[in-house]
């Protein structure tokens, strides 16, 4: 009699293992086809039920194509590397060495009087009013500091608006140096990488370092590894996973301090950890993407499922969210779509001369001609085109594109969220509210729509 429960348990465990093996095979097939289609060159890790079930490196480590990627290669991860300074600030806050209400002028001397009005909290939330770095002239940290000393005024009063840029990151790193008395890179290595067991990561790697992926464009031009701002951590898949686990498991920060840098200042904005959600003292979602020239990375963590997906590429195709969606669907046993080349690439250089109706007519024509290699099956192409128009202050064209997309994908909460955003930007609060409500009905987990509906209904 006592053997029956053990037999059932053994059968269940074998069933899970078989299912995970099947899922890994499907993910492998999907990723390899994506590589053959030219839409993924990079490294991928998939963990589910607290177990790494798939890890691979596929493609070339540099523009020559002669060096294959390995899982030991380090990648720049763009804005995700800003997590190290945000976490660093909160670590020092927890140690009582600084307060988020402290003024920048206390830690970075020689700045104009505006530094008396910016707090560390403003830097973390990108609400400081600082303009972005002058990338054309800045060649070093010293250049950036001098530009800030020469800055006569801010773009807006601190706390009154939002501007996501690297000037905020630069000052966070200088504050950490002032408080700790050590270079920022050393702080990251000793206080973060080593405690998390991230032994393979490199900060500010150069072409002389081994096993560093070099990014390149589709027309075979390599990116330089030089960055005017110092302090960028390049990671391997395993180290990136360790970092994600450290955040989810509160190994460096308390839940309270994690919440401070997980939630942004408002909808459609970035926080120090990108974005996510907590229930009580547990992280239930953490998502962050980053780009730097042709490097692109995406971290998606779902702790309740024990699930983490990490994608890193050195040949940016703008489709990491699409790859993630396919992987998530495979893990959940749902239908999934094979990632292809983004259809919006076919419109490159043309959108400035096309209005929305001309664009939609061309979309239909190209869909008939290129459906095998380019993705016309998802909402992403038109959504990205709509955001191109929105970003160029062509709001009516954006609305027309988004409206059409809602007819193509009436079950997608995301497309109604995009349409709501366009109407919100136009100032039509009634239609914005209607579309955000529709988005929320289709996707109850859309915290952005939830916050905006609450705001507009006030």
Automatic annotation (TrEMBL):
The protein's matches in Pfam families, at most eight in alphabetical order, are given as: Beta-lactamase (PF00144), TPR_2 (PF07719)
Cross-referenced PROSITE patterns, in alphabetical order?
TPR (PS50005), TPR_REGION (PS50293)
SMART domains (alphabetical): TPR
Where, in residue numbers, are the TPR repeats? 413-446
What molecular function terms (GO) are annotated for this protein? hydrolase activity
InterPro entries in the cross-refs: AmpC-like, Beta-lactam-related, Beta-lactam/transpept-like, TPR-like_helical_dom_sf, TPR_2, TPR_rpt
Q: Which UniProt keywords apply?
A: Hydrolase, Repeat, Signal, TPR repeat
Signal peptide positions on this chain: 1-24
Q: Which domain of life is it from?
A: Bacteria
Ranges for domain Beta-lactamase-related come to: 27-323
> By what name is this protein known?
Class A beta-lactamase-related serine hydrolase
Organism of provenance: Chitinophaga oryzae
């Amino acid at each position: 009699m006592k053997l029956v429960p053990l037999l059932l348990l053994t059968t269940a465990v074998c069933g899970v293992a078989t299912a995970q093996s099947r899922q890994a095979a499907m993910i492998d097939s999907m990723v390899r086809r994506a590589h053959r289609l030219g839409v993924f060159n990079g490294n991928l890790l998939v963990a589910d039920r607290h177990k790494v079930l798939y890890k691979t490196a596929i493609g070339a480590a540099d523009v020559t194509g002669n060096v294959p990627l390995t899982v030991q290669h380090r990648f720049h991860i763009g804005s995700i590397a800003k997590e190290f300074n945000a976490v660093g600030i909160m670590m020092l806050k927890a140690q009582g060495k600084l307060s988020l209400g402290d003024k920048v002028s206390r830690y970075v001397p020689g700045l104009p009087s505006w530094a008396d009005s910016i707090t560390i909290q403003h830097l973390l939330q990108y609400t400081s009013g600082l303009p972005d770095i002058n990338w054309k002239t800045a060649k070093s940290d010293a250049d950036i500091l001098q530009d800030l000393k020469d800055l006569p005024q801010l773009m807006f009063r601190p706390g009154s608006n939002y501007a996501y840029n690297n000037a905020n990151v630069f000052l966070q790193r200088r504050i950490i140096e002032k408080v700790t008395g050590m270079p920022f890179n050393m702080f990251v290595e000793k206080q973060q990488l080593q405690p998390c067991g991230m032994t393979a990561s490199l900060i500010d790697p150069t072409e002389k370092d081994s096993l560093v992926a070099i990014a390149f464009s589709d027309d075979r031009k390599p990116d330089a590894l030089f960055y005017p701002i110092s302090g960028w951590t390049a990671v391997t898949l395993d180290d990136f996973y360790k970092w994600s686990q450290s955040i989810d498991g509160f190994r460096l920060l308390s839940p309270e301090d994690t919440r401070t840098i997980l939630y942004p200042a408002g909808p459609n904005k970035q926080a120090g950890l990108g974005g996510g959600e907590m229930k009580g003292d547990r992280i239930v979602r953490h998502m962050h993407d980053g780009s730097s020239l042709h490097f692109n990375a995406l971290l998606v963590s779902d702790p309740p499922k024990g699930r983490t997906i990490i994608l890193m590429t050195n040949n940016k195709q703008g489709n990491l969210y699409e790859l993630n969606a396919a992987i998530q669907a495979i893990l959940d046993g749902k239908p999934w779509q094979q990632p292809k080349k983004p259809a919006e690439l076919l419109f490159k250089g043309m959108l400035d001369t096309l209005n929305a109706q001309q664009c939609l007519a061309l979309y239909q024509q190209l869909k008939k001609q290129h459906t095998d290699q380019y993705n016309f099956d998802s909402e992403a192409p038109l959504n990205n085109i709509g955001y191109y128009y929105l970003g160029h202050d062509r709001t009516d064209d954006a609305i027309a594109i988004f409206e059409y997309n809602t007819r193509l994908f009436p079950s997608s909460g995301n497309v109604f969220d995009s349409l709501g955003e366009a109407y919100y930007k136009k100032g039509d609060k009634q239609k914005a509210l209607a579309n955000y409500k529709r988005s929320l009905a289709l996707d109850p987990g859309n915290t952005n729509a939830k916050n905006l509906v609450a705001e507009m209904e006030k």
